[in-house]
Amino acid sequence: MYKTMIAGVTALSLTVASAQPAQANGFSDEDVGKLLFGLIATYAIGSAIKNHNDRSRSEPQQVERAAPVHQGWVHRPNRNVLPRQCLQRVGTNFGEHRIFNRRCLRQEYAFVSDLPRRCAVRLFTYRGPVRGYDPRCLRESGFRARRH
Predict the structure, then answer these.
(1) Against a cut of 0.70, is the pTM above it?
(2) CB 80 within 8 A of CB 144
(3) Residues 36-58: b if buried by 16+ CB within 10 A, e if exposed
(4) Which of 81, 69, 74, 84 is nearest to 143 (CA)?
(5) In sequence order, what are the beta bridge partners of 144?
(6) Number of alpha carbons in the 13 Å side-chain half-sphere of residue 69
(7) Which of 41, 60, 74, 140 has its CA 20 to 30 A from that of 100?
(8) Which of the pair, 31 or 112, is modelled with greater confidence?
(9) CA pair distance 130, 133, nearest whole angstrom
(10) Exposure of 99 by Cβ count < 10 A (0-12 exposed, 13-18 middle, 19+ buried)?
(11) Cα–Cα distance between 61 and 132 in angstroms, integer?
(12) Domain residue spans in the chain?
């Protein structure tokens, strides 16, 4: 970049220096030749710089990407499906309630930490407090119970 800029400045200075007449009576053949040479050199350098800039902008970078490799069938557990056996009926002083038992979920479901905390409940039964998750809240959050 700097080489072309220096060459352009040099050609321009040569053009300006040769454009001034040496004599007051007019241009000689030699002066006209110097002037034409300077103008042609300036035009050539300017067009070379323009072509270089246009080429670098218009040509997109060629990025070679590797083809995706299929590793075969990868079984991913569905995180939004909860085990049906953890859905239990719990009797309290206010009637019977259904909850997903927290202890059962810890044993049967690997992603208990991903369950929404706002769905956590604690029910007081005849046998003591039971911790779990409200099925309706979990359903509204995108979770569901396994069918069988």
Answers:
(1) no
(2) yes
(3) eebeebbeebeeeeeeeeeeeee
(4) 81
(5) 81
(6) 2
(7) 74
(8) 112
(9) 10
(10) buried
(11) 56
(12) 2-58, 81-145
